């Protein structure tokens, strides 16, 4: 026997012994090509992220079924997706995107520049419900398509974050022939197609063999299970019914799951801003002194420790600590019940002040609502709790029909929503809009940084909402499942990068 052959035989024997020594469960997982993913909320009202605001839509379809020109990665870096590359003119107002060739939609239609033009004009159109309409698409003055694989976008105002915006789920590209039914039957260019949607229970995606890089996609089927209850989430993981909760797992279960050798529990950053949202249109909340009183009435640290098990940090404006140029403004409204009562008295508010606190299903809202209501009661604000389902929150609260609510805004750099007086909290400030305009137009790095800080301070000064917490991302997955994002710069699950090892 030659030396080389002897080595091959020994290596084969070693591998066989290793296989025999490996736990049966590990061997079974290594051969798996399917995955079950836990979701806290069901996408509502449908699966079209270009017409609805729910972040859960992106968790299912973004990058999997529907794609945009660019891709935001787990580290926040922006890379090409449907665009091979792009260039920006020096003034920051013109972007030229060169599109990939040979890309097709799931129904066989070819992808080209006409689809980009259609998608963005649809987002800009009167009556569009795209949540980025005013902040992104209304800023596009012209869309030129000199050929099938080139798109030139001219902006009214410079936007250095524009490539990032093109990677958000509001900017996915749809085909004119299938766009109208995206909410129920999304047709995209991504590696997966919708196979089944059992409302209230599960959504199933199947690998699309016509994808341009299908050979690199290891997961052939992904089932998203909707499990809102924290105890049921943990039970599903322990029973093996769910392989991963990329985000939203109940924080009280973290230590238990960390101690279980079957799981990887990773703590990462998010762009989330957990707030007590305030309806600035309604009396007495249209008085800044009342809004400031609410901010002083809430003990952020006690909220974070009691509701989020400590897995968050306090914030003082609608910005996350991971944002470049973040300013810590938590000291503007320290916990001070006496100050809160004094501000209410100064504003002429007779106590007890009766208000409604509308709470969507996530545990941070339901449990947090009880904590906030108890804190508000100490300053004479009696909050009647109204628990609603997610669709009700979107159809009522998000339309401006509310007093107070608790919600985690997960979109990155979404401060431009404060330039829209029609947004659900009803903030109307010419001063803030001017700051946003000047920041967008600034090309000097120091000036942009200065204005970015002023934007944050303006929101804190106006106490538009009571800013509470930036949550950590808690990603739980089975040890053998690789590719699950640790950080969540956006709410997405890049299934094409997942695999069992």
From TrEMBL:
It holds the Pfam family SBP_bac_5. Keywords: Signal. GO terms for cellular component: ATP-binding cassette (ABC) transporter complex; outer membrane-bounded periplasmic space. The keyword Signal applies. One of its GO terms (biological process) is peptide transport. One of its GO terms (molecular function) is peptide transmembrane transporter activity. Belongs to the bacterial solute-binding protein 5 family. This is ABC transporter substrate-binding protein. It comes from Aquincola agrisoli.
